[in-house]
Amino acid sequence: MLKIGLIREGKIPQDNRVALTPAQCKWLHLNFKDVQVVAQHAENRCYADTEYERAGVEVKEDMSACNLLLGIKEVPVDMLLAEKTYMFFSHTKKMQPANQKLFKAILDKKITLIDYECLEHEDGTRIIGFGFFAGIVGAHNAMMAYGNRTGAFKLARVGSVNSFQKLIHTYFGLKLPIIKIAVTGSGRVAHGIIDIMNLLGIHEVEPDEYVQKEFSYPVYVQLKGADLYKHRETGKYNRDDFHANPQNYTCLFTNYIAYTDMLINGIYWEKNCPRLFDMEAISKSNFKIRTIADITDDRNGSVPCNLGDSHITDPIYGVDKNSFEKTAPYLPNSVDIMAVGNLPNELPRDASRYFGEQLIKFVLDDIRLGGSKLIHNATMVKDGKLNEPYLYLKDYAAL
């Protein structure tokens, strides 16, 4: 029997999303007699213990009888149970220094780690994640920040409503100023951003129109891979080659800087990828951008003036255009930055439902039936040993 434990989130600040909603647990119980879900007691989940209990899910503290433990964010070392299989976002795939001790503890405790981030289709597209709702909340926060800076309009915080549907109602009658917005990316994050652009009545234009024309209404351009990068030698863009050899490419975003009021960034980034611009660019006279939402949130990554996470309760900070130091937001000589690592927490129930649907549809049945190539490729650690696709982490794991 596959006995699934929904573990309590232990990372601070605490996340309130869940991997499976009460309704999804009930569906699993009705459709699979060899699956049982239990939930660990948690005070701050977006679904209360009583909601799980009403759905027929046992709520208890002890998770030792479970053979698959599902969380969302990194599990604190002192909460890890030895010789168990875990699924959560470990944020270790890129050898992130902050989680090196966690990764070493997973090895030492002979744990099997299946990382959500590593669940991919054969073409490398991620199967599961919260990206769509990160895009929704990040785009809203970007518009809110721009409204606060200019005084042209006001938007409430996403957390002031408790559903995406109610958020949509807050846009009714909102009149936006003339503004040009650059949206980068083509994945789930970008899809969420575009949803907000459309709901706000912001018109999409092509890249050439964006730089050549002036408009009497707000517009956005979506910049995908071929719009953003070209090979240093051939001048072409090839998606597979770019992901394999990003260091061979140069970024074209500087062509749009002088025409952009707001940047909403939704592109994947790793250390060999070219940045959208250099830090020094923000001090130049042609740098028109006043608001940046770095939804993918890589500190000093694709957006170099991302100086680190802001908190979900206070999501906007400034960066001085000359000193490059963090400041309060909305100052005359600053660029406003929105860089929050857990944006979907502002719509936790919607985001959890979406996440759980993908988990059930694409992942859990493979685990229930004993595994698959998909599961193997996402298993970073197997019984305390590095799995084959992740042997490059050997030095990282040595600590």
Topology diagram in text:
Blueprint: E1 2-6, H1 22-31, E2 35-40, H2 49-54, E3 58-60, E4 68-70, E5 85-88, H3 100-108, E6 112-115, H4 131-150, H5 164-169, E7 180-184, H6 188-199, E8 203-204, H7 207-212, E9 219-223, H8 225-228, E10 229-231, H9 239-244, E11 249-251, E12 262-265, E13 291-294, E14 316-320, E15 326-327, E16 334-338, H10 348-368, H11 373-378, E17 379-382, E18 385-386, H12 394-398
Parallel strand pairs: 1-2, 1-4, 2-3, 4-5, 5-6, 7-9, 7-12, 8-9, 12-13, 13-16
Antiparallel strand pairs: 6-17, 10-11, 14-15, 14-16, 17-18
Helix pairs in contact: 4-6
Structural write-up:
The protein has 399 residues and is α/β, with parallel strands linked by helices. The chain folds into 2 domains: 2-111 and 348-398, NAD(P)-binding Rossmann-like Domain (Rossmann fold, 3-Layer(aba) Sandwich); 131-346, Rossmann fold (3-Layer(aba) Sandwich). The chain is built from 12 helices and 18 strands. It has helices at residues 22-31, 49-54, 100-108, 131-150, 164-169, 188-199, 207-212, 225-228, 239-244, 348-368, 373-378, 394-398; strands at residues 2-6, 35-40, 58-60, 68-70, 85-88, 112-115, 180-184, 203-204, 219-223, 229-231, 249-251, 262-265, 291-294, 316-320, 326-327, 334-338, 379-382, 385-386. The model has no long low-confidence stretch (mean pLDDT 95).
